[in-house]
């Protein structure tokens, strides 16, 4: 308990009251006449009534311009409220991982890299200035942010159809990433950086394969080199993990779908070069990595069917050394055997597509059904079964029309014309 006491306040209060009695009285607001006091609610009602009356009067005097003026005011208020949201969402947020000096240059670069304001020279200048400032400020050149800026520069050149410049930029990034993995990758097993940079090289190789293979560059050898490097990197890393195990903190490698996409890209490249005997095992391996009950499996089965039907193994060269006795020479399958295998894969594609129901069923299943049915018609045509081929072509044309697949409809009608000509020649 506190032992200290405080003086009583009774005497002081009474003395103040006595002094107040001898002071002159001052009239307060409470003693003013009642007529001078207007309730606040009444004031508000009068103000609202006058505002509504004024608005009604303006509307009757200007029936067209008054609503337009109100609409402009509301739109202006909405725009004023939207500006802070736009600024923080589209101006600040995309660059929040960059220092402001770098972000400032990148905003200018993005402004000049697309749309009506596209100016390759200005955009390229600001991209490079941003990268230079980032390097001076010590940003990691192999971070996702900096590599993403360089890829954005290449994407700008691709949109402007400057494919050689896009290839040059992407190839520089690819070489730098590979050199980093070889020189410093062993020091970054446990922080996931080695895995991340190595995965970038795979994606860059696949994109370079696409750019080299387009109609404007048409460098098939370079495209094949890049795609082969992507597939080899995927398989080597997967094999290393299976043999040596995954180290702590190393991170996940590419998913089966991503690895399958690389295999499929190389398979399509070999298809375009009519090297179907090389495309077949790639499509088959991609199929093993694809989810079994997916519509993309239907597409891969069709690709495998087409590749088998057109497969022509390379002739044996006399310059090659003789095969050791431990590896017996197995004869190449006959064309009829390959056609029979192709027919089986097309039938499997149809059966799989029929077993997939929404929401898992996508447009790939519908198009895959039309393609597989058309392929079965071609196989029947090769066997000389005109009736079966006609039935399949008619069914393929109906399916293609139903799913808005004009290319399939055109090809099916071409098959029907071939059958009609064959019947007339008999």
TrEMBL record:
SUPFAM superfamilies, from UniProt? TPR-like
Which InterPro entries does this chain map to? Mrg3-like, TPR-like_helical_dom_sf
What are the GO cellular component annotations? i-AAA complex
* Organism domain of life: Eukaryota
> Looking at the record, which segments are called Disordered?
309-338
Where is there biased composition of kind Pro residues?
312-334
Q: A GO BP term, please?
A: protein quality control for misfolded or incompletely synthesized proteins
Q: Which CDD domains match?
A: Mgr3-like
Which keywords has UniProt assigned to this entry?
Membrane, Transmembrane, Transmembrane helix
User: What residues form the membrane-spanning segments?
Assistant: 64-87
GO MF terms, alphabetically ordered: misfolded protein binding
Protein name from the UniProt record: Uncharacterized protein
Q: Which organism is it from?
A: Glonium stellatum
């Amino acid at each position: 308990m506190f032992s200290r006491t405080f003086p009583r306040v009774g005497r002081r209060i009474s003395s103040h009251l006595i002094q107040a009695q001898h002071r002159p009285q001052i009239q307060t607001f409470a003693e003013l006449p009642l007529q001078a006091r207007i309730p606040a609610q009444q004031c508000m009602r009068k103000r609202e009534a006058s505002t509504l009356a004024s608005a009604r009067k303006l509307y009757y005097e200007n029936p067209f311009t008054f609503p337009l003026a109100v609409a402009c005011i509301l739109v202006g208020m909405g725009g004023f409220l939207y500006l802070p949201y736009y600024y923080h969402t589209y101006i600040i947020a995309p660059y929040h991982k960059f220092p402001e000096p770098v972000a400032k240059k990148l905003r200018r670069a993005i402004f000049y890299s697309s749309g009506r304001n596209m100016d390759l020279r200005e955009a390229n200048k600001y991209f490079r200035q941003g990268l230079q400032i980032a390097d001076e400020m010590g940003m990691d050149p192999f971070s996702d942010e900096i590599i993403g800026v360089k890829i954005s520069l290449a994407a700008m050149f691709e949109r402007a159809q400057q494919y050689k410049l896009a290839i040059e930029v992407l190839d520089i990034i690819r070489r730098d990433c590979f050199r980093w993995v070889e020189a410093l990758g062993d020091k970054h097993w446990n922080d996931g950086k080695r895995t991340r940079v190595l995965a970038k090289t795979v994606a860059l190789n696949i994109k370079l394969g696409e750019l080299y293979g387009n109609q404007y560059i048409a460098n098939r050898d370079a495209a094949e080199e890049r795609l082969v490097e992507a597939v080899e990197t995927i398989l080597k890393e997967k094999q290393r993990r299976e043999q040596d195990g995954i180290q702590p903190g190393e991170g996940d490698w590419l998913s089966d779908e991503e690895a399958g996409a690389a295999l499929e890209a190389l398979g399509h490249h070999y298809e375009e070069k009519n090297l179907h005997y090389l495309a077949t095992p790639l499509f088959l391996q991609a199929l093993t990595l694809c989810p079994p009950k997916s519509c993309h499996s239907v597409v891969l089965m069709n690709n495998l069917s087409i590749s088998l039907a057109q497969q022509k193994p390379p002739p044996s060269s006399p310059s090659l050394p003789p095969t050791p006795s431990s590896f017996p020479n197995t004869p190449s399958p006959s064309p009829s055997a390959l056609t029979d295998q192709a027919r089986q894969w097309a039938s499997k594609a149809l059966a799989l597509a029929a077993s997939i129901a929404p929401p898992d069923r996508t447009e790939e299943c519908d198009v895959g059904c039309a393609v597989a049915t058309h392929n079965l018609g071609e196989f029947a045509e090769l066997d000389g079964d005109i009736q079966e081929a006609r039935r399949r072509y008619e069914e393929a044309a109906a399916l293609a029309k139903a799913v808005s697949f004009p290319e399939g409809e055109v090809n099916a009608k071409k098959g029907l014309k071939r059958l009609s000509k064959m019947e007339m020649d008999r």
